[in-house]
Design the sequence.
């Protein structure tokens, strides 16, 4: 089901208040999500490049082996993986 792919699918489901299985998302969960997202929306940003790197690490760690992600970061002129990122994302 391609309609359940990507971050946009999640955002659309949240906006509709309906999970992918058709069940309603409980109001208490929606309210908490909206409250935290409002806090995030008001946070001062440190720069686009820093945010790009953070997203690459957070999402890339789900899909790529540590060595490959680290090399990809270096090849793209980002800082390599930090010890704390390796510990968080790759320690089992």
Sequence:
């Amino acid at each position: 089901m391609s309609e359940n792919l990507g971050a946009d699918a999640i955002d659309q489901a949240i906006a509709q208040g309906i999970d992918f299985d058709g069940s309603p998302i409980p109001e208490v969960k929606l309210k908490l999500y909206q409250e935290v997202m409002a806090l995030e929306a008001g946070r001062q940003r440190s720069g686009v490049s820093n945010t790009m790197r953070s997203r690459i690490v957070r999402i890339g760690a789900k899909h790529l082996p540590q060595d490959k992600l680290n090399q990809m970061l270096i090849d793209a002129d980002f800082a390599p993986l930090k010890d704390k990122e390796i510990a968080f994302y790759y320690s089992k």
The mean pLDDT is 93.
